[in-house]
Amino acid sequence: MGRRPRRRVAVVGAGMTLFMRRALETGKELAYYAASQALESAGVRLRDVQAVVMATAPDAFDGVHMKGEWLLDGAGGVRRPYLRAYVGGGSGVFSIISGWSLVASGLCDLALVVAEEKMSSCQPHPQAAFLTIFDHILERPLGPNLLWIFALEQQRYMAAYGIRNEDIALVSVKNKRNALAHPCAQVAADLTVRDVLASEVVAWPVHRLMVSPVSDGAAAVVLAAEDLAPRLTDRPVWIQGVGWSLDTSYWGNRDLAYPRYVERAARMAYAMAGITEPRRQIHIAEPYDPFAYKELHHLEGLLLADRGKAPEDLAAGRFDRTGELPSCPSGGLMGVGNPIAAAGLMKVCELFWQLRQEAGARQVPGNPERGVAQAWGDLMQIGTVVVLGVR
Amino acid sequence: MTDRVAIVGVGATPPRPVSADRSYREMVFEAASRAYADAGLTAADVDSVVSVAEDFHEGTSITDEYVPDQLGAVLRPVHTVAADGLGGVAAAVALIRSGIADRVVVEAHAKASNVRRPGQVLALALDPIYERLPGISPHYVAGMEMRRYLHETGTPEQAVAMVVVKNRRHALAHPAAAFGALLDPEAVRASLPVCEPLREMHISPAADGAVVLVLASAEAAAHSPRPVWIRGIGWASDTPWLATRGWAQASYAALAAEMAYRMAGMSDPAREIRFAEVDDTYAYKELQHLEAVRLAAPGEAARMVLEGETRRGGRLPVNPSGGSLGLGHCYDASALYRVVEAVRQIRGEAGPVQVAGATVGLVVSWRGIPTQSGGVLVLGAA
């Protein structure tokens, strides 16, 4: 893997809904809003779309079996090839990889990629849906939940490199502040490290303000083939590289201090994009940040910071919007919100807007030419990476 | 490079109504071992994996977590699609044709015997507000569709019964089939109604099984002993709503076939295709699908089955393996069982169920009620 694809693919339109708790719209409607906006921004009509890719995380959120089939009319999948690709929390970024493969292969020239999540339908709390992700025999009898296992991972990360919780709380501060400039943001706020550490402990060392919220929302992008893209827009944003990697299901056997699967995925995407020095050649990063520590963890896996040193870079301002490598200028999942699959594609939308200089108050300075978006999920197991650039 | 993609290895476990002795991961390991051996490869030669699964069938959320180990694909580019088996094949074809992968594995399995209330799971696929009728079997959707199909095409119920008789008789010769039988059409017609005119024996019985395919680019397939070429693939969905669908015709299969035939450069599929492995989740579906993919004129499929044209020795053998009615229905893995059977036919390795002159074959898949989603695959010896 990692060879040059046969033809190039560009993002030519993007759209997203507000991210919020308890949207009144159905999942179909959320998908429709994001898809319509993406089509409009690309200047194409649904009838021009040759295939639709859908990403949406567990069916258990909605209590609907074959949820992808149920959502398909909202996403514009009627009377055309429609595919729901998923890799848990990594699905949002994987959806553009799936759409990319359909266009790069020549199976179609114009594809619509939609990511939707409505977590609030799951009562009393969507965390309950995650109780069913664990191995039936080995793990479920122990009654683990997601917060516990991510707390374990954060703990391991901190212990391996001598990181303090204050260092990690700074991610919440940065991202929630960045999100103040995002019109779709759900939990933007101007906070201090003190505020974050004063919030209740959910599962030590994770505090409530170090966890992304429960969200509803959708995001969408339109992908066009090499020949078609320049006819649709003067500023196509090219998909330069894609990568994904799934680690073993037996997470208890792995060292959680470092996300090696993210590194594998990143190396695959960088090789395709011709990136040899990621820190110099990548100008914006949108790493996955459902928990505060994950942004740091993932920046290291993406080879954008030394192992265990991302907290120092953060404290020095390197990842600020005006820093050397702006990270999560959107506000990320910590600030904009986390409708799971939609959150990953929101990061891709952010790169699209940033690289086209359309990010408004969130615009990073200089002329960023290349960005990387990444998502993560399953049992701390999958890395999905896409590199976008103006050339 | 060329666009051509081949199936270079197939492996499957024999579908069984119960498999208490093995987990699905063990079954997948067995299917993968067989597929890799069949292709003359090892897991290390595989670039990427596509698995096909639905959470509610697994009883696990985010079930893609449990894919890599039993396939030898840890730390590799692995992803899952919620589609029927042909959706997985389509995703693999896209990866190979994109130029970034030479060999891609497609995996699907079913542990249907673990699903204690399959009707309940199926009911959850219906829209929760408008379509889910408490206490009523979701098979009502198939009953309504069958009624409309029989009505609009003038197909007699006898023809549907003959599909059951034919497929279960075909299965009798299949060394791996669990549901082979010599039946009288009257026995089918006398079976209990589920939602009239749909009867119990029209519904293919659920089974456990795992299938693994190895797909390869033309360059990679050059080293393969027995490639079978994917000449065309198509997949499509129509409206998910019960209220706005056509009911009589399988429109999704017609759209998918159009896409697949275009890719295969086939203008007259009925002349070129020598046999078909067609979704028969419900017996009437075989007839409906044959018409949708233009292997039978509208209303003609009934005549074909009644006159024996679709028997193994007939003009156009349909489900010579026994189909899902004879082999068992393995949820979304069913489509991959159809592909395995078609590959064996084209290789001339189908043993007692071999069709003479099986050079070009068609596979038609469907996701089951209440969906209008399915796929079409054209396979050829060259």
Strand order of the largest sheet of chain B: 3-2-4-7-1-8-11-10-9
Measure the end-to-end span of chain A: 22 Å
Q: Mind telling me the C-alpha Rg of chain B?
A: 19 Å
In round numbers, the mean pLDDT of chain A is 97
Percent of residues in helices of chain A comes to 25-40%
Oligomeric state, counting identical vs distinct chains = heterodimer
Explain this structure to me?
The complex is a heterodimer of chains A (391) and B (382). In chain A, the strands form two sheets. Chain A has a nine-stranded mixed β-sheet. With 391 residues, chain A is of the alpha/beta class. The model of chain A has no long low-confidence stretch (mean pLDDT 97). In chain A, helix 3 packs across helix 13 and helix 5 crosses helix 10. The longest helix of chain A is centred in the first third of the chain and has 16 residues, at 27-42. Chain A has helices spanning 27-42, 67-71, 91-104, 146-161, 165-178, 193-198, 229-232, 260-273, 278-281, 292-301, 310-315, 332-335, 340-355; strands spanning 9-16, 51-55, 82-86, 110-118, 201-203, 206-207, 216-225, 237-246, 284-286, 370-377, 382-389. Chain B has 382 residues and is of the alpha/beta class. Chain B has 14 helices and eleven strands. Chain B has helices spanning 24-39, 55-58, 85-97, 118-123, 140-153, 157-172, 185-189, 218-221, 251-264, 269-272, 283-292, 301-306, 323-327, 334-347; strands at 5-12, 48-52, 78-81, 103-111, 193-195, 198-199, 208-217, 228-237, 275-278, 360-366, 373-380. A nine-stranded mixed β-sheet of chain B has the order 3-2-4-7-1-8-11-10-9, sandwiched between helices. Chain B has a two-stranded antiparallel ribbon with strand order 5-6. In chain B, helix 6 (157-172) packs across helix 11. The longest helix of chain B is centred in the first third of the chain and has 16 residues, at 24-39. Chain B is globular and about 50 Å long. Chain B starts with a strand and ends with a strand. Chains A and B meet through helix 2, strand 3, helix 3, strand 8 and helix 8 of A and strand 3, helix 3, strand 8 and helix 9 of B. Strand 3 (82-86) of chain A pairs antiparallel with strand 3 of chain B.
